[in-house]
Each structure stands twice: as C-alpha cells, then as structure tokens.
Amino acid sequence: MKHHLRITAALGVIVIAVACVPPPEPVPDASAGELEELEDLDLPSPAATSVMRRAQEITVRIRTLGCRQFGVGSGFVLPGGIVVTNRHVVDEPREVTLNTWDGRSLDAEVRGLAVSSDLAMLRLADDAGLPVAELRETPVEVGEPIIVVGYPGGGPATVVTGTVLGHVSGELLDEATEVLRIDAEIRQGNSGGPVLDQQGRVVGVVFALEVGRGTGLAVPATTLISYLEGAPMAEPAGC
Amino acid sequence: MDEPSLPAPPTVPPPAYDARTRRRWPWIVTVILLVASTAVAAGIAVDQRQVAAEWRDSAEDLAGQRDDALGRVEALQTQLDEIATMLATSEGDVTRLEDRIRELADEKAQAEDTATTVQVERDVLAQVSNRIASAIDALDECVDRMFALHATTVEAFNRAAAGDPVDVDPLNAQAQATTTFCNDARSAAAGAAAAASQIQ
After folding, report:
1. Is A41 on the interface with B (CB under 8 A)?
2. Which of A86, A191, A206, A232 has the least CB density, counted as fewest CB within 10 Å?
3. d(CA A110, CA A94)
C-alpha cells in the first residue's frame, strides 16, 4: 500500500514540476542599432601605432655650432621639452638647433652635461606638439631585440634593428656604470640617438662604435634616469 | 444446586467493515490523486501547448532575426573589406607622403647646414676682411706719417743747412712714434695675411 502511495506522490511531484516549466522569455529585440553603430566606428589607424614610425618621430637631428667646429648628431625628446643626446655632440656649444623628422627646426640650449657619462640634456625653447619618448625603467636583457634610430652622417633618419649582445664595463669609456653592447649598425652621426625595445620604449642612448668589433655601445636608460632624477651635471663650458 | 451460570458473552467477531475500509482508503486516495493528476496534467498539457506555441513563435522570430543579422554581417563584412582596402591605400599614401616629408626635411636640414656653414664662413671672411681693412688703414696712416716725418726731416735739414738752429728732439720723437706705429701696422698686416691664408 505504501508503494502505491509513493508512486502516487512521485507522480504528483512530477506533474507539478512539469507544470512549473516557464514559457520562453520574450525574444529580445535585437534592433539593428548596435550593428549600425559599427558603420560609424572610428577605426584606429595603423599609421599612428607603428613602433617604427613612432621611433622616428621622437628622434631629432642635432646641429651644433661649437667654438671651433660644426657638428651633427642625434637625440630624442622627453616630456617637458627635454632632449637627450651625447655630451660629445654638444660640447662647448655656441648654437644648438634641432631638426625634427617632419622638417621643423627648433632652437635649444644645453642645460647640463653628465659628469661621469656621455650624456647631455638640452631644453627646447618651444616643444609644442613634439612626440615624446617613454623610458623603460627595467634593465634590458641580453639577446633582446632592439631598434636604433639616428641620423648617421647627418643624412636622413635611419631605423636599424639588432639585439643586445651584452653588458660591458664602462670604466674604460668614462662611464660610471656598465654599458650596452649592441649589434645594430652604428655610424658617426648616430651618437645620442635612442635604442628602443620592441614596444618603442627607450632602453639606451647610442654613444660609441667599437671599430674593431663593428658593434655599437649605448648608455643604459637606467643611467639616464639617474641623471633625470637629480644626479649632478656640469654646466657647458663657454668658448 | 448449582448456581445457574451466566451464559458466556457471545464472542463478537471483529467487524469485517473496518478492515475493508482500511484497505479501500489508499485505493480511494490513489484514485482521487490519479483523477486530480489527470486533471492537472490536462491543464498542464494545455498550458504546455501554449508554451510550445510560444517557443515555436520565438524560434521563428529568432530565425528571422538570425537571417537578418546574417544579412547585416554580410553587408558589414563587405563594408569592412572596402574599408580595409581603403585603409591599405591610405596607409600606402601616408607612408609615401611621410617618406616625401622625410626627404624634404632632410633637404631642409642639409640646406640649413649649408647656410650655417656659409654663415660661419661669412663671419670668418668678414673678420679677415675687417682685419685687412684695419691693416690697410694702419699702413696708409703709416705712409702719411712717413711723409710727414720726411717733410719735417727735410725742413730741419734745410734749416740746418741755412745755419738756423735745429732742435732734433721733436724730430727724433716723431721718428720714434712713426716707427712704432708703422711696426704695429706691419704686424696687423701680417696677422691679416695669416688669417687670409688660413681660409685657403
């Protein structure tokens, strides 16, 4: 008898459960609004996001008229109208002019020469609208791909790629810290140009060419950051 | 005599009614439940039929919307392909224009280099020219002073020849001043000549 009761109860529960199946939700109105909005999308331009293109935009050509000589080098722009280059590019400056990638000519003055590194800081008289570089605070690793931009021979800007070969003691090169050895093609005129990682962040500043090896040397960005954070710098000497 | 004994009460058999009733109740309840369930099931069936109809309608709506969305996707894909083509073309144009901008920027920078060099050369030439002009002026002044010294000397010589007294101290002083001035002028001329030879 109990068996019958159980069957009946189970049957009742099933019937009630089945009765609880809700009707379908009303179909959402998939209006064409969202799809039509796609037609008005402002798609990002690949031209504006290219790392190579950005690398060229932040790099400037530096023309210096010194006390005894005329010279050309490279540099790059940081926020606040600061331009970084090599000390040997702007030693004893009478007149410093920057040429941007798009043909602008800007006056600058030397604000400081690094004491124990081949770095110099310039200040632009007017930095309106100039693209600026981003510095990488973490050290670059051996084997990491790099991009080097500069104005070798004072000619058009060049972009070359390479890798970090290693870290070299900077003592013999009057550098306070280790410097980067890179296998990118470096020529006279590349001095002061940026060394960038694959994301376009500055990891070093080109300052020398090892003639025997055919490799380039660069001051690490960490050294540059130390000067930006207040390490002592010298005033440029007059003529 | 024996006391009459009371007859033993009759044994009442348990009513058969209660047992049967107890056996029937579950059946009755079952039947009632079955009837109720059947009624509920019938109601549910009607309801589910409506639900099924709603699902069918929804499915038909969704199918329609799906077809509509697929059509839009196809249209958007076509537009996207066109935009991608235009973007590639624009990118190519931008690249060519940027290359041209760089060429022009390089030409401008080279021209500025030349202008700066010419400016420096002009400044140097102007300096040398000024030194040469100053040296020429000094040498010219030297010649004038030499002529004046010569005239003074001749005059003194004539006066001495005529027996007039001649004070030679002023004459010596003039000769000394002229010599000093002319030596300076010659040094200036030599310096200007050296500067001019460096330009070459």
Report:
1. no
2. A232
3. 10
